[in-house]
Specification:
By secondary structure, this protein is of the alpha/beta class. It has 19 helices and 13 strands. It has an 11-stranded mixed sheet. Strands 1-2 form a two-stranded antiparallel sheet.
Length: 493
């Protein structure tokens, strides 16, 4: 301050004129001190001493200077000042090492709230023993390794708009499961997108249609089917659902249901007595048993299902002639017509249940992937059967995964909504505006977390693992043969 200004201030003070302008720096310090005091007295904050030490390295001195200047520039944008250590680089390095030794003799005061910003407890990490790789944490860049068997309910949904990477994410999980252990993997493929990958990995693709040479016996059953009870009892429920689907629920009264139950038990009697070995009964045998009954209602049921036993849609009334023992199986249902799709899905799901119960006896896990799962909810009986499967498979050591882009349609179904709410493993990719709002309500997604599923590129999104909600990204190298087997983008296949 100049002598002239000093004399002016003295004259003002001698005249009792204390209205002189306070310097900006002093005014700013006074304001910060008052805010600091208010935090301590009214907001129950505590005063802490802290030292924030950062270490960065470079290959050359020029690059190091450039990086230093860039870091300081970034800090200044956020109203933060960084000081460069002079002749203390070794002390700075020792300070940041996880040995608990502070070599830098410099401290400043911070409130507990301000200090908490520097501690990354807000980052949730997923690192399960025996898990598989799902991508990287968008905040910390650490790997996400999850094991669905650690969850109370390991069933999963993969949700996203077209082009967000849903099928690719599912295929990536299939590949990692194949490489990580000996679990069986079953895929229901309505769009013929998985066959190339399945065949390349030594799996079996089963094409199901009215004209296909591949047949699955709708009445296949093993000794483990009944979950410890009489397997025929549970199978009778399935045959009843099948008949309701074929005939119509309104056309089946108590008398018709009793006849179906009676004939089912009779058809399976010899098979049970043989210890579930030898020839398995078919729908043709079931119809033949119906024709033996004296009631006219039995004849009506036999006539109603004739199309699916002896007619042109009898693909599920023949003995199973496909390899269902492969570790990786893909059920290709693209060519199933409107008439066969409802019964076809029931048969496929029941066949999967057979496989799950058999694996349970062997102590093996089973993973089921259902692409475009919303198609199953369009038919009442397949939706109900899937809902039952979703609830039961957990205790069998099996895990279901539903993949769909029609999230809004999915949430309109009470059955699907319940399944989604009870699934503890969700992968949410880029979402449509209406879907985002409904998912946010269902999964309790915050506004900040919503940004990770809003207008993001393929392979980015949110992952719900139990109670943890983690943003993630998964960048897969595009020059690999595996990528070409997994991608469905035009021009990359």
């Amino acid at each position: 301050m100049s002598i002239r200004k000093v004399h002016r201030f003295r004259r003002q003070n001698s005249n009792n004129n204390f209205s002189a302008v306070v310097p900006y720096d002093m005014e700013l310090q006074r304001k910060e001190s008052k805010e600091f005091l208010d935090d301590l007295t009214t907001r129950d904050q505590r005063m802490m001493f802290a030292t924030i030490t950062m270490v960065h390295m470079a290959d050359t001195k020029e690059q190091l200077d450039n990086d230093t200047e860039e870091l300081q520039s970034i800090a200044r944008k956020h109203l933060c000042q960084l000081a460069v250590l002079k002749f203390q680089q070794t002390d700075g390095l020792n300070t940041v090492l996880p040995i608990g030794a502070r070599k830098i003799d410099a401290l400043r005061t911070l409130t507990t709230e301000s200090l908490a910003v520097f501690i990354p407890f807000k980052v949730q990490e997923i690192l399960h023993d025996g898990g598989i790789y799902y991508g990287q944490n968008s905040i910390s860049n650490n790997m996400i390794v999850a094991n669905r068997s650690f969850l109370l309910n390991g069933n999963s949904f993969i949700l996203g708009v077209p082009g967000s990477g849903k099928s690719f994410t599912g295929k990536n999980e299939i590949v990692n499961l194949m490489l990580a252990g000996d679990a069986d993997i079953i895929v229901i493929d309505p769009e013929r997108e998985y066959s190339r990958l399945v065949e390349a990995m030594g799996g079996a693709t089963i094409k199901i249609s009215a004209t296909s040479n591949n047949h699955i016996n709708a009445m296949d059953m093993n000794s483990e089917y009944g979950d410890g009870a009489n397997p025929v009892t549970l199978k009778s429920e399935f045959i009843l659902s099948l008949c309701e689907q074929l005939i119509g629920a309104n056309n089946l009264g108590p008398m018709q249901k009793s006849i179906i139950d009676r004939c089912t038990a009779t058809v399976y009697r010899d098979y049970q007595q043989r210890g579930y070995t030898g020839k398995v009964p078919t729908l043709k045998d079931f119809r033949a048993e119906l024709l033996k009954q004296s009631e006219p209602e039995a004849k009506e049921i036999a006539l109603a299902i004739e199309l699916f036993t002896d007619g042109s849609l009898n693909t599920f009334a023949k003995e199973t002639n496909v390899d269902v023992d492969n570790r990786l199986i893909c059920y290709d249902i693209l060519d199933l017509g409107k008439q066969l799709l409802p019964i076809g899905m029931l048969v496929v799901l029941d066949n999967i249940l057979n496989r799950i119960t058999a694996n349970r006896a062997k102590g093996k896990h089973t993973f089921i992937f259902i692409d475009e799962i919303y198609l199953l909810f369009q038919h009442e009986y397949s939706a109900n059967f899937l809902f039952t499967l979703w609830k039961r498979v957990r205790k069998y050591g099996a895990y279901c995964t539903g993949i769909t882009q029609n999230v809004d349609d999915l949430l309109q179904s009470h059955t699907a909504r319940t399944m989604l709410a009870n699934s503890e493993f969700l992968i949410m990719l880029n979402q449509a505006s209406t879907d985002r709002l409904r998912l946010a309500e269902l999964v309790n997604i915050s506004d900040m977390q919503m940004s990770y599923i809003t207008n993001v590129e393929a392979g980015r999104g949110l992952m719900k693992v139990g109670s943890a909600l983690v943003p993630f990204f998964n960048k897969f190298p595009k020059h690999t043969k595996l990528y070409k087997l997994m991608t469905t983008k035009p021009g990359e296949v």
